[in-house]
Amino acid sequence: MRSIADHESRDALDVLRHSAAHLLAAAVTQLYPGAKYAIGPPVENGFYYDFDLDRTLTEADLQPIEDRMRQIASEDPAYERVETRREEAIETFRNLGQDYKVELLEKDITDDVVPLYRTGDFVDLCRGPHVHSAGELKAFKLLRVAGAYWRANEKNRQLQRVYGTAWPTPQDLDEYLQLLGQAEQRDHKRLGRELKLFLLDERTGTGLPIWLPAGTTIRRELERWIVDEELARGYSHVITPHLAKLDLYRQTGHWELYHDSMFPPIEFEDGLELELRPMNCPHHMLVYQSELRSYRDLPLRVAEIGRNYRYEKSGELMGLVRVRAFDLNDAHIFCTPQQLHGEIVGALELSRYFMRTLGVEDYYYRLSVRDRSSGKWIGSDDEWDTAERALREALVGIGVPDDQVVVGEGEAAFYGPKIDFQVRDAMRREFTNNTVQVDFNLPQRLGLEYVAEDGTRKRPVMVHRGAFGSIERMTAYLIEQYSGAFPTWLSPVQVVVVPIKTEHVEYARRVEERLRKARLRVRVDDRQERMQRKLVDAHEERVPYIAVVGGREAEAGQVSVTARGDARSVEDLDGFAERLALEVAERRR
Amino acid sequence: MRSIADHESRDALDVLRHSAAHLLAAAVTQLYPGAKYAIGPPVENGFYYDFDLDRTLTEADLQPIEDRMRQIASEDPAYERVETRREEAIETFRNLGQDYKVELLEKDITDDVVPLYRTGDFVDLCRGPHVHSAGELKAFKLLRVAGAYWRANEKNRQLQRVYGTAWPTPQDLDEYLQLLGQAEQRDHKRLGRELKLFLLDERTGTGLPIWLPAGTTIRRELERWIVDEELARGYSHVITPHLAKLDLYRQTGHWELYHDSMFPPIEFEDGLELELRPMNCPHHMLVYQSELRSYRDLPLRVAEIGRNYRYEKSGELMGLVRVRAFDLNDAHIFCTPQQLHGEIVGALELSRYFMRTLGVEDYYYRLSVRDRSSGKWIGSDDEWDTAERALREALVGIGVPDDQVVVGEGEAAFYGPKIDFQVRDAMRREFTNNTVQVDFNLPQRLGLEYVAEDGTRKRPVMVHRGAFGSIERMTAYLIEQYSGAFPTWLSPVQVVVVPIKTEHVEYARRVEERLRKARLRVRVDDRQERMQRKLVDAHEERVPYIAVVGGREAEAGQVSVTARGDARSVEDLDGFAERLALEVAERRR
Questions:
Q1: Residues linked to residue A462 through DSSP beta bridges, in sequence order
Q2: Which of B239, B277, B313 has the most A C-beta neighbours within 10 Å, making it the best mutation to test the interface with A?
C-alpha cells in the first residue's frame, strides 16, 4: 500500500500544472501590462489563474496567450525560490501593483518569512514546489475563460479565470484533448435532454431534477437490482421518513457540524422544527433501537435507498452530479467487534460486485486512518486499532493489489477510519463513490446497546456503508461512460421492431407480444415514415436491438436483427427472445 | 343510480341514531339534575352527546344511563316537533338552565321561528327528523366517555362526550359489537407494533412512521405490483422531486386554497422558498410540458408513487391512517375529449383490479356532479356535460350495478366532476380511497397545450386518478382486514421451516435453499427451543406456512406443512415450492 505522502504521480502532475499556471500569469502580465493576478492553483486535470484585467478576455485571446507561454518556455527560465521577509514581499508586490498578493500577505499570512517564486520577470507568492525550469513544460493548452469572484465571494470583485491543462508528454495531452472533444457528446446533461432521461425545470427549483419515463426505467432497474441483491446478502431494507425533528440532529451532532450544508428547518406554528435529513444514519439508528437487541440479532444490516437533502450553492449545482436532493444506496451495519472484519469484507465485495456489473473499472481505494500523533479522536486506541486493522485486512482479504490502495495517514474523520472507492469518470474526473466507514461517535451519542452473551450491555460497532453511491451520481456516470448507449438491461427501450411495409405491422405486433412475454421493453415503430428514417431514429435513441420484419421474416417466424456496432443476424423469434432475456437476466454489458 | 338526496338507508340510520342521542340526553338530565347538554349528532356507526356536568363520568356510569334510556324508551314517548318563536325558545332553555342552547340560539341562529323537539320532559333545539316515538329504539348501547371542547375550541370549556351506537335490530347491534370486540386485536397500530411492521418514534416527529423490515417487504410487494401493472397498462412512470418552488403552488392555486394543510415553506437565505408538495399534479404537468405534445402523444398517462406532505394537526394523527407524509399511487392522464370515456373506463378497471386482488369488497361509488343551478364552476357547460357523461357512462360501461352508485348533485369540486370509491374498512369506517376526477382548472392555469390534427393548439383534458390509494392508508386497511394474517404474496415471511431436532437442521437448510430458489421468503427456526414454542411463535407471527421437517421428511425429500387454518399435509419439497410460487405469482388471497 502507498501512503498519500508518496503518491508521486499525482504530486508530479500537480507540480507540472502549478508551474504552468505561473507560466500563464507570466504571459498574461507581459501581454496585458497592468494585469493583476490573484490565485492560480493546479486543479484536477489542469490548472487556472484568476486575473483582474481592464479588458474582457474571450476564447480568441487564448491562442495568443498560449503562444506567449510557449515563447517564454522556449527561453527556459528557472523557477527560483526566494525566501523573503514579509514586509519586503509586500513592498515588492505593491511596487508591481499586485494588490491581490498584497492583500493576501497583509490579511492571510502571519509568517515573518514567506517564499516567493521567480520565473524570469514574473514573481509570485507561492509555497511551491515547481519544475526546475519552464522548458520542462512541453504539453499544455489553454481551454476556456470563466468568471470567478475574488475569494469565491460574490460580494467581491469578479475576476477572469483562464483554465488550462498540462501533461507530461504531448501524447498524454492529445489523449486528454480527445476525451474533452467527446465531452460535449458524452455530457450527461445533454444526453439526458436528448434521450429524455431527466428534466431540469426552474419551476421545481434548481438541483431538483425530474426523472422522465426513460430515466425512471433506468432507475427502477438499478434500484430493484440493488434491493434484491442486498436482501439476498442478508440486509434488512427499511423505509424511513425524509424528515426528523431538528432535535435529533442536534443530538447526533449533525446540526452543529453540518448545518451550513443542511436545508433550513421547517418551522411550524406550534414550535415544531422539522429538518429534511442530510443523511440516513440517525433514522437507521432508530430502527436499531426499535427493540432491545441481543448479540443474537447481530450483525444487523439496515439498508435503504434513502432520500437525502443537502444545501448546495446554486452556482455549484450541475445536472445529476450536484443536486439538492438525491437517493443514496445506504446501509448501516451494527455488529460486535469480532464481526467487524467479516462485515467490511462483505461490504467491499458487494461494492465490487455492483461496480463490476456496471462496468466501473477505473478506481482505486483510499484508506483513511488517524494521525497517531494527534489526540483529537473519539473512541479508544483499542477500538481504532481494531477498526483500522479490520479495514486493512479486509482489503488484503479480498485480494486488492497494493498499488490500488492509497493510505491517508491522518485523513480519517474524527469519528472513525474508512475506505473510499475513488472513481474516475469518462472525463477522468475523480469522485468518491462507495465508502465503508467505522463510526465510534454516533452509537455513543444515541446510546446504542446490545445484550452480550454474558448478559451485560455493550455498545455495538457501527459501519456506514455505501455500496453503489447515489442513484443520481451513478446514473450521470453511466450516461457518460456509455455515451447513452446503455447495456441492454438498463436500456429504456431494448428492442424496436421495424415493419418493412404496412402489411408487416401485424407480424411486428406478434413479435412485440412475444418479446413482452420475455419481459423485454419493446416498441413497434409503425409510423408512416421510410424505413431508413426509423433505423436512424432507433440508432439515435441508442436502442440496443432493432428487429426488422418483412414478408420473409413473417413467413419463417424470424427477425432480422441489427445490434449496436452493426452486428446483423437473422434469428428465430423464440431464440432471439430467449437470448435477450438471458442477456438481461445476467446484466451483461 | 341513486341520488344522495334519497339514500334512505344511511338517512334512516342517521335518524335512528340522532333520536338515540336525544334519548341519551333525556336520561342524563333525569339522572343528573343540573346537567347541561350541548350538541348531540349522529356519527358514523353511532351517535354522541356532549354534557357539562359537575361530576366526571366514568365507564361505570354508562350502564345506569343506558338503563334509564331503556326505561324512558319503554314508556314510548313521542318525538314531537314544535315550531317555536326564537325568543320563546331562548326563554324556554334559559328557564331550564341550558346555557349552551341559549348561546346557540343567540349567536348562531337568526331565524324567527326555530324547531324544538320534545320527548317527554326533554326538549332540544333540533332540525330533525326523528323517529315517531322512543319505542322504536330497540337496539342501542353506550360505548365510552371522552373529553371534548365546546365548539371544538380548546379555549372553551371542556365537556364530557358520551358515545353510543344504535341499530335497527338487536342482531345488527350484536354484529357490530362483535366487530368492536375484535377492534383492539385488529387495530393496525397494535399489530404494526407486534408484527414489527412499522414504528412511531417521537424523535422523527409525529405522523412520520418508520417502516421496519417486515412492513417494508409488504410495501415493496405492493409497490412493484402497482408499477408493473401500470406499465403494462400503458402508464409512463416518472420520479419527480418532493419539493417545488412555492411560486409553482401560487400559480396552480394550491397555496391559496390549501395552505392551511400544507407544510410551511422552507426559506433560504437567498430568498428561495421551497415547498414540500401537498400533491403530485403540478410536477406531472411539468412532465407533460417537457416537450411540445401532439395529438399523437395522447393519451399521456403520467404515473408515480409520489410522496406527499400534509400538515395534519397533531391531535388528528393516527398510525398509518392519518400521517403527515404519505406515498400516493397517483397518475395524471392528459387526453383529448374524445379519449376521455376510454381513459375513465381504464382507470376504473385498474382500480377494481387492485381492489379485487387485495380483497377490498365493501365499497360503493360516489359520483359527484355539479349543481346546475349554481354558476361557480370553471370550464364550459360543454366540457362539464362531456365529463359528467363520460363518468356516468364509464360506470355503466364497466357494469357497475345502480345500487352501488350514489350521485351527489352539487358535490363536485369547482374544477371538475369525479367518481370516488367509498371503502368501508374492517371496523365499518368509511373512507375515500380510489378516485377519478376531471380537472378543468389546472390545464388552464399552467397553459397546457397539444398540437391537434388540424395543426391548431388545443387544451388537453386532465384526469387525476388514484387507483390504489395511499400506500400508508391501504396498508393500514390490509392489516386490519386480515388481522395481520396477510395473503401469502404479501406476508413478510412466507414459510418458517421447523426442524424437529438439531440433527434435522441440515435438511431444514436444504428446504430453505429450495424455497429461496422459488423466490419465497423463508426462515429456518433453528433456535434452541422446544418445537411447540416454535410453532406458537410462527403462528403469532401470522406466517402462512410452517414446514416441519424430521428424519422421515429428510429421507423422503418431503415437508410436513401446516397452513393457516390448520390445514395439514405432507408434500414433496419440489411440489410444495411450486405450489407456493404459483400462489404468490397469482397473488391469491
A1: A334, A439
A2: B239
Interface contact B287-A227, CB threshold 8 A: no
Q: What distances in angstroms separate CA B226 from CA A222, A343, B72, B567, one per listed residue?
A: 18, 35, 55, 31
Q: Which three cell numbers stand for residue A477?
A: 456516470
Specify the pLDDT at position A410.
84
CB pair distance less than 8 Å for B266 and A276 = yes
Mean pLDDT of chain A: 93
Q: Does B444 touch chain A (CB under 8 A)?
A: no
Mean pLDDT over residues A405-433, rounded?
Answer: 90
CB-defined contacts A:B, below 8 A: 145
Q: How much is the pTM?
A: 0.86
Residue A244 in contact with partner chain B when CB distance is under 8 A = yes
Disruptive mutation site among A198, A201, A296, A522 for chain B (greatest number of B CBs within 10 Å): A201
Is A272 near chain B, with CB under 8 Å?
yes
How far from chain centre, in Å, is Cα A333?
24
B283 in reach of chain A (CB within 8 A): yes
Mean pLDDT of A462-490: 97
C-alpha cell at A153: 465571494
Per-residue H/E/C for B272-288: CEEEECCCCHHHHHHHH
Question: What's the confidence (pLDDT) of residue B372?
Answer: 76
Test A242 with B245 for CB contact under 8 angstroms.
no
Structural domains in chain B plus CATH codes:
2-186 (3.30.980.10), 199-240+283-480 (3.30.930.10), 495-585 (3.40.50.800)
Flag whether pLDDT at A5 surpasses 60: no
Could you please report the per-residue DSSP string of B511-574?
Answer: HHHHHHHTT--EEE--SSS-HHHHHHHHHHTT-SEEEEE-HHHHHHTEEEEEEGGG-EEEEEHH
Q: In chain B, which stretches have pLDDT less than 50?
A: 1-8
Least-confidence region, from A249-263, A363-377, A425-439, B498-512: A363-377
Name residues whose C-beta falls within 8 Å of residue B187's C-beta, 6 or more positions apart in sequence: B480
Give the nearest partner residue to A204 out of B241, B266, B276, using CB atoms.
Answer: B241
Q: Which residues of B touch A202 (CB under 8 A)?
A: 245
Chain center to CA of B499: 42
Which one, of B203, B513, B191, B215, lies nearest residue A236 by Cα?
B215
| Test mutation, B208, B231, B246, chain A, max A CBs within 10 A | B208
What local confidence, expressed as pLDDT, does residue B6 receive? 37
Residues of A within 8 A of B264 (CB-CB) are 266-269
Query: pLDDT, tens digit, for every residue of A114-164?
Result: 999 999 999 999 988 999 999 999 999 999 999 999 998 889 999 999 999
Read off the DSSP letter of residue A290: T
d(CA B233, CA A516): 12
